[in-house]
Amino acid sequence: MADDVGRIRIRVPSSIKAGDVVRVRALVIHPMERIERDAQGKIVQKAYRYINQVTVTYLGRTILTLDTTQSVSENPSFTFAFRATDPGPLTITFLDTTGGKYAGLADIKLA
Amino acid sequence: MARRQARGRALQGLDTTDFGRFRTYAYGDARPEVPVASVTVPDGPPGDAAKGRALFVSRARGPCTGCHLVPGADVWPAGNVGPDLSTVGDRGLTDGYLYQLVFDPRPIFPKTVMPPWGATGVLTPGEVRDVVAYLQTLKGPRPAETDPERDPATRRRPVGFGDNLDATNNPGVLLADQAEAEWSTKGPADRACADCHVGPPELAMKGVAARYPRHVASQGRVMSVEDWLTVHGPETTGAAYLAESEANLRMTVLIKMASNGLPVAIDTTSPEGRAALARGRASFERRVGQRNHACADCHTPDGGANHFLGGRMLADVREGLTRHFPTWRTSQSELWDLRKRFQWCMTPLGANMLAADAVEYAELELYLTSFDVGKPMSVPGIRH
Amino acid sequence: MTDGITRRMVLRGAGAAGVVGALATRAPTSAWAQAGAQAPALGGQESVQSALKRLFGARPLKDGAGVIKLEAPPIAENGALVQVSVEAASPMTAANHVKTIYLVADKNRIPVVTRATLTPEMGQAFVGETIRLGETTDVRAIVEQSDGTLLQVRREVKVTVGGCGG
């Protein structure tokens, strides 16, 4: 599993017409470490590794930013809408608290 | 209402207690099931209803609420495999009758799926008496239900976890794809899967997994895809594919995905197939472990199938339970093959597990898979 | 439910939806590492009351029913993975759009789950995600419109915890 952290899959509709508002879903493999407690129930103080920001850019412009906490699930998936005006790259970038940066790219083509 | 979840990383909740004194699924284990105990209420102080209630809802000891509804907002999530006991105290049942029922119900209901709590030593005689005292306090009128979800009879059914074949919904799909590169990668013996199985795995392996588990003549036993990889890998590419290893699991998923959509078509008619199927069925019906349960108790319509066990709907064997394995377990964030699922089942059964590649599990899988025949494969699944 | 769909269809995009694979860029950027270390946390361990006070001060949270559609399962089989989504009716124009959507789980130790900062380019104020719920709790969606109005809806999600270990 450790080797898999940061693997991303993005799903976009297979046929998009110019101007369509379409839904995109992305999943990233990530532990989203949750707070641990020791045998006495005390919180273990350490640098927890979790995604704290997700950025979506389309045609080079940021269209959505998600700030996230440890209340987001492990291997999280995110869904959002965007208006497909032109063909071009849609990128989703995940940043985690330990400096990890994981990016996925979907090449938007218009029918 | 609900207890905080105290799960950490994978396999939290897996019991490491030694249940060695109870019968297992091993074919060589000739011990009988827990002997039937006919009992009377022992002498001693009267039962303590408050202690009995604490035992009744204790997750560590049963809980009885896994199968029976009783009053109380803290009773969540109760199951309905057994009768609703909300007003059992009104039924005029004697203490002796209830004591026998809790200690060992088999003298009263020979075909019951309820464990013999006293006969197996899970509850002491004094504790059984406490539970009986509690049950006798459950008198009507039944309190009005403020929350329809509390009662398993009116609770909504779980909705599942969405499309299991969508890689943006099921991490198992995404992870299994990593095995695809291995298909054409040379192993230690300088050979790759693709050297013999020509073409991409989805073509080369199409339909293969739909015929597993099957009797493998060279090995003289029934094998699942997982079992076969442990033998076939070393003799061809030189790769190990140890049982339950990540490599084995992902290659199994890759191979099984090549049969997705195709009907399960295992051999149930050859002499070897028929004999193995009969042994698998015997395992399905064999009572094992501290709970003295059989698979059939929970997964047949005469038992608990399609009822809630706690918060979970028990699956019905007739639906076919295997064609989505290996499956992504959302509660563990891991892909699990069926053997691991069997091993996990051993905890609620109170039975020691067998090795992953045990023939007993392979033949049990064969029997279960006989209900999947003709239904389309859909791997990896996504479940609780 | 998808028994008839083959892996090829899903992977190769021959079905209703295409799937695009992406390799991760794994190089940590030191700039972010520094920024991340200093970035104010969206939320930590706190009560939902103090979280809401911290985020919104004394600003009123109006009833968003009729504007916000919050979808969540009434019963979550597994609190570790709960699919929720929020959709707010909005023209999503420069002059009138949804600016932010907060997702809050009242009884979580870390109640603030996500803050989504939206733009008119999205065309639709919709965000979905998979979240954790520690126990049965209200989940709230709080929507901030471009004129500063705050709208809120909530619904209870019951969390099932184990049956008998299965």
Structural commentary:
The complex is a heterotrimer of chains A (111), B (384) and C (166). With 111 residues, chain A is mainly β. Helix content of chain A is 0%, strand content 49%. Chain A is built from no helices and seven strands. Helices cover 30% and strands 5% of the residues of chain B. Chain B contains 13 helices and seven strands. Chain B has a three-stranded mixed β-sheet with strand order 6-5-7. In chain B, helix 2 (95-103) packs across helix 3 (125-136), helix 8 packs across helix 9 and helix 10 (271-285) packs across helix 13. Chain C has a single domain, classed as SoxY domain (Immunoglobulin-like, Sandwich), CATH 2.60.40.2470. In chain C, strands 2, 4, 6, 7, 9 and 10 form a six-stranded mixed β-sheet that branches. In chain C, strands 3-5-8 form a three-stranded antiparallel β-sheet, with no helix packed on it. The longest helix of chain C is centred in the first third of the chain and has 9 residues, at 30-38. Chain C is globular, with a radius of gyration of 19 Å. Strand 4 (61-68) of chain A pairs antiparallel with strand 7 (112-118) of chain C, so a sheet runs across the interface.
- The rounded distance between the terminal residues' Cα atoms of chain A is 38 Å
Low-confidence stretches of chain A: none
Q: Which strand-content bin applies to the residues of chain A?
A: over 45%
Largest sheet of chain A: 4 strands, antiparallel
Describe the strand arrangement of the main beta sheet of chain B, using strand numbers. Answer: 6-5-7
Q: Give the H and E element order of chain B.
A: HHHHHHHEEHHHHEEEEHHE
- The level 1 CATH classification of the largest domain in chain B is Mainly Alpha
Instruction: Briefly note the CATH topology name of the largest domain in chain B.
Output: Cytochrome Bc1 Complex, Chain D, domain 2
Binned strand content of chain B: under 5%
The CATH superfamily label of the largest domain in chain B reads Cytochrome c-like domain
Mean pLDDT across residues of chain B: 93
Largest interface: A-C, 53 and 56 residues
Q: Quick recap of the structure?
A:
The complex is a heterotrimer of chains A (111), B (384) and C (166). With 111 residues, chain A is mostly beta strands. Chain A contains no helices and seven strands.
